[in-house]
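Aim 2, interim progress. The first record below pairs a target sequence with its structure tokens.
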Amino acid sequence: MTRSGPGFMQYDSQYPLYGLSFSHSPSHPHRAALTTLHPGPSNKLLVVDTKPGEASDELHSIASVNLTFPATKVAWEPAQSVAGNAYTNGQTELLATTGDVLRIWDLGRDWKGDTSRGYVGRGGAGGGGGYETEQYVLNTRSVLTNSKSPQTSLPPITSFAWNPDKPESIVTCSIDTTATLWDINTSQAITQLIAHDRAVYDLAWLPQSPDIFVSVGADGSLRAFDLRQLEHSTILYESPGSNPLARIAFSNTEQHMLACFGLDDSKTFILDMRSPGQPVAELMGHSAPLGAISWGGGPPDSESGGGWIASCGDDCQLLLYDLTGPLPAPRQEAKSQTAKSSSPANYAFSPPATPNDAQSPPPAKAAEIMPAKAWTADSEIVNLAFTDSGNQIGAISGSKLSILDI
């Protein structure tokens, strides 16, 4: 991965950036949603893209809108939802952001050039100029909150996950220990549950499942929830010393494989849902705390494996690991009580109770894997994401978005 030349694209904003998500629209493979990280009520949601109809590596801001608080996460609607609206040719797409509330945004064409609604055209705000002939606007489609009054402040939402197989469903998590399932078509909360003993930091849907999601939090546990049986949750993994777990992500090619890392940790743990009591691998190479992880794809002819996975951190490094081959088999003798009580083979999480005293073996026995490729930024890399094709990866450092070929 190189800093310049073919296979390298860059967008330089006038704002410090944090959030990053790439569109799932085949018509706009490099369209990215960005959010800023600035103290006070002067943050933005930006959308950048290449100019249509041109083989250009230049990214331009095409739309922006003000945010009261920094967004904790931004994401485009799932690919299945985009495919359902194929007749729009990518001209209308949905985005979601979280922070104080869950907001659903509509990105559409705007030929009127009405700057009062978030339009950015020629030389518009956000840095990098704008389209000369095509213009877009970001409109608020809905604001989802449990607050009965606009003046009532709620605990911050730390993250969310959009269900790829049921695009009307989004689950959010909060520092108040809860997870909330939303129906964005009705803008109503379907259910809210106490997910952890302390703050919940991140969650993800089990691939190819409309009912099961997992979460991690400040109590150091990784838990699974089945919407069909919410009376119980399953503790799949507990970090040594109950070190808070910060992020989690499922492989795009292997349903049972997931990755997570702890707060202020420099290693990524790879877990196998079929035997989740301890990590099967540790991804090494960083010298400072991690900021984000993301899975890509793998070669069509690759053996069974999780694909490429990338991590970034405060050491200014983006490290890429090749997990396209089989990982070491899980140690069957090291299963925890929690893992035995669940049914991970068919992912029907319905244990009779959630044990509180299950202890996972230390992760030191896991295989250590070093990166296959690396890239160094000018400053700390706070976020990353693969493009929908999986052939490129974007990284956020300072006010820059860099997109590199794998």
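The second target in this work package is listed in the same format:
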Amino acid sequence: MKQFMTSSLLFCLVIIAAMYEKGNSQVWNYRNGEPDGPEKWYVKYPHCGGVMQSPIDIVSSQAIYSPALTSLNFSDYLMSKGDNFTLSNRGGRMVQLVYSGTPIYLLGGGLPTAYKLVQLHFHWGANQYLGSEHYMDGKSFPMEVHLVHRQVQLANFSVAQELPYGLAVVGFFFQMSERNNTKYDQLLKYFHNIVKPDTATEVESFQLTDLLPANLDSMDYYRYFGSLTTPPCYESVIWTVSTSYIPISESQINLFRNLQNENLNNFVNGYRPIQDSNHRIVTTTLQDYPSSASLTHIQLHFLLICVFIVALYIY
């Protein structure tokens, strides 16, 4: 009974949040050229015009190897089975899976503290050549998933998103596959319940690692400091972009494309255009790129302090 009440409460909160967003809160879309499109977000949301915006095009040859970037610890992700998930079509702009239950913490990876999982969401395009938010060496991917975490010592997501290093987001690219990724069936089978905007459904729980690459504990990645990729675009995110891909078939990604936006049209191309890196440093766990530069622990610590000072100045 207690689990049922908790699950029902979460479901109601997601619906209320969607209704509030539709009626009161943010007015924006992904359609370039429109008054509320990405090029004009900064008008209503000034942070979207900042100097540390995301996403960016990651240029691998310019990334700096850092020994401080240790392996990320995803072990808590194995404990999600039996907890509560709510899948929603957030205003025809995003598919989001909200988690509640036993806290899931992201550890390691050179992060300054532990980060608690809040939700994960997807960005995709109309074809296999567009859809991801980040680029890799000028290349886009058909879809990208973001795992959003907040600092454990902060009260909630709303507080964390406004503070430097308040959030840690891990991004994974998708690659097209001729075969279905059967592990995604346990999520995709609910998509018929969220076709229309501002709809949500409860999902039978499963291990979140099923949605991610198999080599989580040993994967290589890139790290930089940036922002939320949707308004209000707060520059509070420690970004981790994985080099490990997730396979997905055309028929599976079409389930995302068949969802409806706020105009009841097919929702495609739900991603923010690439932002200027403004000479930000991108570090990596990879050691085999032409760049011979590297960051020691002391240098990385100094860099973090500098970024923190700049962020405080901006705010």
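The CA atoms of residues 2 and 16 lie 21 Å apart. This observation will shape the mutagenesis plan for the next reporting period.
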